[in-house]
């Protein structure tokens, strides 16, 4: 007897892994396409196969008997998603929406048509094009970049060759964007179902280090009520206009003159929403599952005044042992701390876990979350408290 429809997830990273727990609570069977044996999500989702997401036959095999398919990443070829849709699989988010997260050039064109505020931008193909656009600027490959990869700040002609070469080798275009004078980076996360129901989480402040998200504070401190509402409205409008199903993360700049500009889109659970696992009534992972299965969405309301998420990044120190060995200190020091590890091998700068803290005192939450993350990374030595 089938108790519930099976949901296929493409990609075996930590985002798929963190969908497993709410799926268990919902009684929702998952089937995983993993890129390798023993990857993060493959450790917790038993119904799995290993294969290449770029192979349509593999995608058809893993989705056989599944009513819905969703994603841990946005790299599945658009034409394959159309083929799955034609075969009767509900692809969520659908290919016509997902392409805006796959291709930054397509995204910029569409957001301009919608009148969504964005940095000045243009597709460039030569040094002369970049010179005409103006230095300094940011160059991005239109496809494939993430966590600072495929992104360059260029300040003169000598900096342009590498981005153009990398893009040519990858067979993608280069997008030039103005180097925004921003106060900070923000993120607005919303969930949207096929029936059009939507839920918006508070706009959060994100702190980046070497192109990788390091910390998130929810809600963003000292954000005016007007900008907080505008950020949520921008994300909700984009989700509706593009027909997004599932979680949409809209990364934004808050400029020094008090404007919001859209930087990036992600159509899946997002690092800037990990705080919701413990700090919101319904996590982004559960609401993603609810949305793609067209179930009523859960409340995005915060559980406390403040929530802080700090990523645990892989250490370059050879003497740092197993992440598991950090539990005795971290848990004894702070019984209210919540730790989420991804089952990944330690590599310098790699996201291997995160810690969440919520409460009424922001400084206290920051200190506790940072201490725990530093301890797991080996940045605090072997002190004890």
From TrEMBL:
Domain ATP-grasp: 108-293
One Pfam family linked to the record: RS_preATP-grasp-like
UniProtKB keywords: ATP-binding, Ligase, Nucleotide-binding, Purine biosynthesis
EC number(s) recorded for this UniProt protein: 6.3.4.18
InterPro entries from the UniProt entry: ATP-grasp, ATP-grasp_carboxylate-amine, ATP_grasp_subdomain_1, PreATP-grasp_dom_sf, PurK, PurK_C, PurT/PurK_preATP-grasp, Rudment_hybrid_motif
Gene3D superfamilies assigned: 3.40.50.20, ATP-grasp fold, A domain (3.30.1490.20), ATP-grasp fold, B domain (3.30.470.20)
Catalytic activity: 5-amino-1-(5-phospho-beta-D-ribosyl)imidazole + hydrogencarbonate + ATP = 5-carboxyamino-1-(5-phospho-D-ribosyl)imidazole + ADP + phosphate + 2 H(+)
Superkingdom classification of source: Bacteria
Pathway: Purine metabolism; IMP biosynthesis via de novo pathway; 5-amino-1-(5-phospho-D-ribosyl)imidazole-4-carboxylate from 5-amino-1-(5-phospho-D-ribosyl)imidazole (N5-CAIR route): step 1/2
Protein family according to the UniProt entry: Belongs to the PurK/PurT family.
Protein name: N5-carboxyaminoimidazole ribonucleotide synthase
UniProt organism field: Nocardioides luteus
């Amino acid at each position: 007897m089938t108790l519930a429809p099976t949901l296929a997830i493409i990609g075996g990273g930590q985002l798929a892994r963190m969908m497993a727990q709410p799926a268990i609570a919902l009684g929702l069977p998952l089937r995983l396409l993993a890129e390798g044996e023993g990857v993060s999500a493959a450790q917790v989702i038993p119904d799995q196969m290993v294969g290449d997401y770029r192979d349509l036959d593999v995608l058809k095999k893993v989705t056989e008997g599944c009513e819905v398919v969703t994603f841990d990443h946005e790299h599945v070829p658009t034409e394959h998603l159309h083929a799955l849709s034609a075969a009767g699989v509900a692809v969520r988010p659908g290919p016509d929406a997902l392409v805006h997260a796959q291709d930054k050039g397509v995204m910029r064109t569409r957001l301009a048509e919608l009148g969504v505020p964005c940095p000045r931008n243009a597709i460039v193909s030569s040094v002369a094009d970049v010179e005409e656009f103006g230095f300094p600027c940011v160059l991005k490959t239109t496809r494939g970049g993430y966590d600072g990869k495929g992104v360059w700040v260029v300040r003169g002609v000598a900096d342009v060759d590498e981005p153009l070469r990398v893009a040519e080798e990858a067979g993608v275009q280069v997008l030039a964007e103005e180097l925004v004078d921003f106060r900070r980076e923000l993120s607005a996360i919303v969930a949207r179902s096929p029936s059009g129901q939507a839920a918006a989480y508070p706009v959060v402040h994100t702190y980046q280090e070497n192109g990788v998200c390091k910390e998130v504070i929810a809600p963003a401190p000292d954000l005016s009520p007007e900008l907080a509402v505008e950020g949520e409205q921008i994300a909700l409008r984009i989700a509706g206009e593009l027909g997004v199903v599932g979680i949409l993360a809209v990364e934004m700049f808050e400029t020094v003159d008090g404007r919001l500009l859209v930087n990036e889109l992600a159509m899946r659970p997002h690092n800037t929403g990990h705080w919701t696992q413990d700090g919101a009534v319904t996590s982004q992972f559960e609401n993603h599952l609810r949305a793609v299965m067209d179930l009523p969405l859960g409340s995005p309301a915060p559980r406390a005044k403040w929530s802080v998420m700090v990523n645990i990044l892989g250490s370059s120190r050879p003497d740092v042992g197993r992440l598991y060995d950090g539990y005795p200190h971290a848990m004894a020091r702070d019984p209210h701390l919540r730790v989420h590890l991804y089952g990944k091998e330690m590599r310098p700068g790699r996201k291997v876990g995160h810690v969440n803290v919520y409460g009424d005192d922001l400084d206290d939450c920051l200190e506790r979350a940072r201490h725990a993350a530093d301890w797991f990374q080996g940045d605090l030595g072997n002190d004890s408290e």
